[in-house]
Predict the 3D structure of the following.
Amino acid sequence: MAERSSKAEKERAFKAVQDIIDQYVQLTKNLERPLFDYQVMRDCKLLDATPDGRTVFELRITDEYSNLNGA
């Protein structure tokens, strides 16, 4: 059975993942040609992260993610 992480460990993991997302958005927001990744990273909401590398995200699928068929 996996060890349970302390609250402090989970908070550090969450902050580390959120920092990566924030840094990516800052580095790519002014590109002449926006990347798909930018849209995903900008729109995702981090809900949980664990020290062993697992994460949970929420991503609302909006019109920006539709295709030519409207799907």
In short: The beta strands are 45-49, 55-58. The longest strand covers residues 45-49. Residues 8 and 58 are 23 Å apart (CA to CA).
